[in-house]
Amino acid sequence: MEKLYLITIHWGTAPNTTKIESALQPLGTWLRFSQHSWLFWSLRTSQEIYNALAPILTREDFELILRVDENDWYGFAQPWVWNWIRSKGATLDK
């Protein structure tokens, strides 16, 4: 079963979102929420995702991968973000 993750990168160097997204593509489905973060649906574990991204980053960059409970949420985002999350089967209605 696919899980929802939040991937956040603290760029110590110039952001390279293209390389990150290329590495994520074969592992699941992503939505870039900001220059520093992605929502990511995948069958992989957080460690497998980390291992796929680690070679792209430098020693000045940091990555944090957190599993998200798609049934426990609160926030304000544009409708297209909520629609993307719902399209994956998450229950966002409270």
Written account of the structure:
This protein has 94 residues and is an alpha+beta fold. It has one domain: Alpha-Beta Plaits (2-Layer Sandwich), CATH 3.30.70.240. Helix content is 27%, strand content 30%. The chain is built from 3 helices and 4 strands; from the N terminus they run βαββαβα. It has helices at residues 17-24, 46-53, 79-87, and strands at 3-10, 28-34, 37-42, 62-68. It has a 4-stranded antiparallel sheet, covered by helices on one side. The two termini are 23 Å apart. The mean pLDDT is 90.
Class, according to the CATH hierarchy? Alpha Beta
CATH architect. name: 2-Layer Sandwich
Largest β-sheet summary: 4 strands, antiparallel
What is the domain tally? Answer: 1
User: What fraction of the residues are assigned to beta strands by DSSP?
Assistant: 25-35%
Q: Main sheet: which strands, in order across?
A: 2-3-1-4
End-to-end CA span: 23 Å
Binned, the helix content reads 25-40%
H/E topology pattern? EHEEHEH
Question: What is the CA-based Rg, rounded?
Answer: 13 Å
CATH topology (level 3) name: Alpha-Beta Plaits
Total helices: the number is: 3
Uncertain segments of ≥5 residues (pLDDT<50)?
A: none
Average per-residue pLDDT, rounded, comes to 90
Assembly category: single chain
The shape, in one word, is: globular
DSSP strand tally? 4
Going by helix content, strand content and strand pairing, the class is alpha+beta
